[in-house]
Amino acid sequence: MTFRHIPLLLAGAVLLAGPAAAQIGRGDAPVEITSKKGEYLQNEGRGVYTGDVVATQGESRITTDKLTVICSKTKPAAGEEPVCDAMEELVAEGRVYYTAPDVKIRGDRARYDYPTDTITITGDVILSRGTEGVVRGTQVVYMVAEGRTVITAGSNRVTSIFTPASKRDPATPPAASSPN
User: Which domains, and CATH codes, for the chain?
Assistant: First the structure.
């Protein structure tokens, strides 16, 4: 759940480095963020990425129009600048897609809370898990480490469509039952 350095590439190739706790999926791999533009607001402890943003960690990925990385800051020594000590949250806005090996979630806005290891995606949300089915709602709360998902739909109803196992892959015959 930790990584040692996160580069924030800015117009002048400014590099921010420091130990930080971060995860957008299971594992300890570093988080890589690419975008058309990056801006680091050092005094605020925020990095803002815009334009075809992709944040990847291992096999997990968030793509979006805008991504804000918020971190806690170390207290700088006299004359030094504050640095990002630990990632606190990621906020993705505009055409948000979260993909991991076990789940795909689409929405309009997402907030990844590192301390609770939870992603909350809102808007017109669609969640799918492989060939198992599709669920629609207005909010998905995905507790990554637990593998637990809570879907709500505000004043509407959650809609789920599931494909029976026998209809998922017609090339695979159903398991034969053994005689008693």
Answer: 2-166 (2.60.450.10)
